[in-house]
Amino acid sequence: MVDDVAGWGAIPARAGEFRLRPVRLPADLELLAGWMNDPEIAAFWELAGPPAVTERHVRAQLDGDGRSLPCLGLLDGTPMSYWEVYRADLDPLARHYPARPHDTGVHLLLGPVGSRGRGLGAVLLAALAERILRQRPRCERVVAEPDVRNLRSVRAFERAGFRAAGELDLPDKRAALMVRARLPHPA
What we know:
Acyl_CoA_acyltransferase; alpha+beta; N-acyltransferase activity; GNAT_dom; 5 helices; Aminopeptidase; single chain
C-alpha cells in the first residue's frame, strides 16, 4: 500500500544526497535501539528500553499489511534518521482528522545528536514531501502529527512547508496536525 520507497532512489536535498531504505532486522536494530534510548527521542517516541522494545515496534510494521514502512534515512550514504512512511487515510489516525483518500503520513527522528538543531529536519522533510507527492500521484497531502510539546519538530514541519491544521487528542498524546498539500500546477 505504501509504494516501493527504496525504489524512489536518491532524493536531492540541500544537505546532500538523501535516500530512504527499509529497515533490516536484525542488522539495524542496535542503531535504532540506541537512538530510541536517547532521552530527547525517548520523550516522544516512548520506545526506550531493551532492543526488543524497538524490534517489536518495527517488526509489527515489517510484518503488517503494507500500510506503514519503517525506513532508515541515509544522508550521503550514512544512516542518520529513522522514518515511517504510512497511509494516514488507512491508519487509526484517520478517525481523528478529516482524512482524504491516499493521505500519506510521515514520522521521523534524527538519530545522532549532531544532526539535530541545525535545520536538517526541515530540509529532509521538504525533500521527502516533494518526493512523496511526485511518486504517489493520487496523494494530495502529506500529513504528520508530532506531539505539541515537541516544538523543534513542529517548527521543522513548518519550515518544510507544512501548515498547522489544528490539534488532535490522540490516545497517547496531544498532537499538532501538520499538512503539506500538493501545490496546484500553474495554468
